[in-house]
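Researcher: Please predict.
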Amino acid sequence: MKFKFATALTGLLAGLALLTSVSAQADDSLTAIMAKKSILLGIATDFPPYGFMGPDFKPQGLDVAVAQLIADKLGVKAELTPVSTPNRIPYLQTKKIDLIVSALGKNAERAKVIDFSVAYAPFYQAVFGPKALGIKNFQDLSGKTIAVTRGTIQDDILQQVAPPTLKIQRFEDDSSTVAAFVSQQTQLLATGAAVAGVAIQKNPQIQAEYKLLLKDSPNFIGARKGETALLDKVNEILRQAKADGTLNAYAQRWLGRGLGDLPE
């Protein structure tokens, strides 16, 4: 009996050891990055002020600064990879990038396929339009045309709250969406407040303004499912940067306002 018990115990311990070993091997995310001394960071290059190409043709913006901060704190090289709204999650899943740092909002559908860090920057989506166009509520959108980037949170929300006669014109990237509104292909624009602010500032002739709030949606960093070692380290870096004022300084510089009350 003692022999059988000892054998069973030995087998159980061996099984636990194997399970632990497999789990450790399965999540080598942080170890692999430290070993290759570089990290692939997916950033936008057409989404000011979060990510865009500067006069020197180098990426800059709030997200670019956060991406660089993560690499610096890890002590590895930042390999910045341009991504778009439609391809950023597929790039992450196929390991073309290690993290998404690209004005990524969090929702239930995305949470099924990727994991999220704590929030690191404010962001909200809204409807914008000319001052002369009276829009007080969503019913006032009836019969109007609006530009939105396909597959974004604002696209999802519009489908839920807009009247059936609103004509939604979808574009594949944010620059095309903004261009459609600025060139008056559409009467309205659904996008992030910061992006709209840049467009309004660059194109005063359109005399656009904020009309309706779609959603408060802070930015999060996206990581592959199960890569908790890397995500835990990223969260540690972000929490420290929030505590010491670094993230607030980024927000002030690129957005013209502080972090506000960001969720975990």
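Model: The first strand starts at residue 38 and ends at 43.
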